[in-house]
Amino acid sequence: MLETLEYTDAVAEATDPIYEKVRRSVPRFEWEIAAPLIAEINRLKRVRNAIILGHNYMVPEIFHGIADFKGDSLALAREARDTDADIIVFCGVHFMAETAKILNPDRTVLIPDLEAGCSLSESITAEDVRLLRQRYPGVPIVTYVNTPAAIKAESDICCTSANARAVVESLGSDTVIFLPDEYLAKNVAKETDVRVIAWHGRCIVHERFTVEEIQAYRDQYPGIEVIAHPECSPEVCAEADFVGSTSGMIGYLAAARGNRVIMVTECSMSDNVQEAHPELDFIKPCAICPHMKRISLEKTLASLRELRYEVEVPEGVRLRALRAVERMLEVGRG
Hints:
Blueprint: H1 9-22, H2 28-48, E1 50-55, H3 60-63, E2 69-71, H4 73-82, E3 87-91, H5 94-103, E4 108-110, H6 126-135, E5 141-144, H7 149-153, E6 157-159, H8 164-170, E7 175-179, H9 182-189, E8 195-198, H10 211-220, E9 225-228, H11 234-239, E10 242-243, H12 246-253, E11 260-264, H13 268-274, E12 281-283, H14 297-306, H15 315-331
Parallel strand pairs: 1-2, 1-3, 3-4, 5-6, 5-7, 7-8, 9-10, 9-11, 11-12
């Protein structure tokens, strides 16, 4: 168990500039509990020659307080590939840490909680992928990066929501199998002439949004702009003013026509981008990813101190998965 860290003048001096970024979403009394942990994590990173990768769905204290690099899965995969740190701590879910290990076999990759999983990554098995190859011989398999290494290893190429269409069209095939997100596959299919065969996986956060809910927000807040993630259903996406990956959603905010927006995605996303857009009023639907929220400051500090929990990928699986991930990185965002 971690000892209690005190909020001292030195901690305040080190962390007050960070608080300015999160003061709209984190009350001061909560910050004074988090600040000693943030200061100690940032100190220990320097001692360990470690970096922390923070996904957009992390709480603001992690996202702004300790993450050296932040973004969506594609951006963080690139940072993982390019880092010269000895240790990578992934504040995200397990498949993301596995991707970092695939790209950095000689570095120590840690995840603060081994149980930080993903409904998408759990919706399909390697055996399922092999059966799909038998059923559709010669059809290339595109796998969303939100999957474990064993699934990536069975695939031709990976993608993220940011470059899914570009990846599908890069294969030069009239048909592709797209795994495992059913909604993302259907939304990509609407944007391309390529026939897309979808699996039946869904994100537990994004599948909960409904057209009726979006319409209710429009009724309550006339003129609100709706920005949706493509893991939402095609019907919800059709109701949105903009549909894009987490990075695409952030980019869209600079061009928002009004002053009130709703981001139809995990709720910490709005908290994390609010600092850069003080002119916007964010209406925040309470859609929490329980897997992402398993990552905490306390667990991150313990992970750095004790070098737990190390992520390993068997070399045979890693090499096969690496090909699919590297092809994704070559395509980029399209």
